[in-house]
Amino acid sequence: MIFDNFSSAHLTVLISVFAIAFIMGAVINKTNFCTMGAVSDLVNIGDKNRMRAWFFAMAVAIIGVTIFELSGIASVDSTLPPYRGSNFAWLEYILGGLLFGIGMTMGSGCANKALIRIGGGNIKSIVLFIVVSISAYFMINPFPGTDSTLYSLLFYPWTSPASISLSTQQDLGSVIGTAIDTDIGSTRAVIGLSLAVALLWLIFKSADFRSSFDNKLGGFTVGAAVLAVWFATSSLVTINVDDETFSWTEYASAESWDMLEDDSEARPRDVAVQSFTFINPIGQTTRYAVKSFDNAYLTVGIAAVLGVILGSLIWSLISRSFRIEWFVNFRDFITHVIGAILMGTGGVLALGCTIGQGITGVSTLSTGSVLALISIIFGSTMTMKIQYYKMIHEEDATFIKALVSSLVDLKLLPASMRSLENY
Known about the structure:
The protein has one domain (2-417). The chain is 65% helix and 3% strand. The protein has helices spanning 6-31, 35-45, 49-71, 90-106, 111-119, 123-140, 150-154, 156-159, 172-179, 184-204, 207-210, 213-234, 248-251, 254-260, 279-290, 300-318, 330-349, 356-363, 367-393, 399-409, and strands spanning 2-3, 87-88, 164-165, 238-241, 244-247.
């Protein structure tokens, strides 16, 4: 789609992302697609179907990105966040993923699930949203009257020095292609398609999954939605000014904007090739409010957040599943607030959440995304097991005993160290 001004092109992208998010929100509500639920089902009852749905979304997104890049439709080399960036912040991926995994378990779901629950009438998810938003905002924005952010105060001095500056981009295609001296594009295609085929085989060999319409619908829709937003932010629109054509992102760069537009303050923020991720966009809602709802701060991320909430709301009304929910007690409130803080800080530190790194990032074959995803799953699994031991053993289950027994369950410590029985 070709436009003769940026504002029309920008609005088209925002509306498109909102529409995609709206559909995804409605489908997720209907199918109960839930990344934390996938971990919970596997850990607590051995049910792998929602995990398969999550992996199905990954496979769809990987296949789509591979085809896009092979055909020249779009490129995800330079994105927001920089999934394929050459700065391999391994410690931040691990630590951020662990914090996010712990937080989403304490908060009863990931960021995307909180948006779905808001649409379904869950008031405590609104509290979760606000705390996540403030935490994520101050991770990258300074506290009033200072130059310090949460990131600069708590993490940067000791996590940033551990980062490795690679000679190539950090995706598997670049790393392996450079190591064996082959074409990076071809290597990406081989790895992407091989990984997707392996995932699809693991997923569809299950008769239970094949018979589950909701799991297939949820996984396919989320993967396709991630792919659709990649397209919307990379190739959907172009701007033609005085017979010179700009991409959406080129026009909004500081250099082009200052050359083509009079008001530098009106340049929209966070215009980049991107797809669904929810922690930083939830933080962007606080920035949007702080900036007095200036349209320059209305982003793709905010459009996605609003779309998911409204899509979930409409489905919950249609299906008559809308229910007002509140905290069980004060302890439940505190647990969710702590979880939200960990989600906000961990999600920004890891450059994404279960959707942002687990599907969007993985679709780029980013090694950092894989590392963050593993850390999120591990953090969530550990927290669930600790909660389980403390619940069934009550007074006997100190945190250390529950932690040690959980590590025994995960084969990370010898069985002789177990102090609590797993009934």
